[in-house]
What we know:
This protein is an alpha+beta fold. Helices cover 39% and strands 25% of the residues. It contains six helices and five strands, in the order ααβαβαββααβ. Strands 1-3-4-5-2 form a five-stranded mixed β-sheet. It is globular.
Amino acid sequence: MDKTQQQFLERYLATLGETERARVPQWGAEHFCADEFNANECARLIARGVKQASCSLLAGYEMACEPLPLAGRLTVVLNWAQEPVCIIRLTEVTLCPFNEVTPEFAALEGEGDLSHAGWKAAHLRFFSHYANTIGAEFNEHSLLVLERFTKVFPL
Length: 155
């Protein structure tokens, strides 16, 4: 996290009581998606409260030996230029096979036409390409890490 991102996080943390601040299990800063247009669009949708969920391929965490995010985690949402846009708090983290992602979850991702079919087509392309780049397998039964979150700063 760079200085600007850290200062943005500190502005939010200063609004919390000591007990609430102590309950934050993790924090970090990141942009969503793998290209400039989508990273900026996701940041905009999250800031507006439209995008309230995201998902990633479990194999990516496993291959990088990274722990899964924990509910309560704070994330400084960045645009492609790595500038802070807002802060989200994870409310739920679950594992789910790709082919069992619900229409409700697809709509909470807040992207495209909000349909389950649109979500499935876009994510099938994305995860197929991503898995290929990291040397993992991907199919409709591959496990995804589903994250639900709420924007907490600025309100």
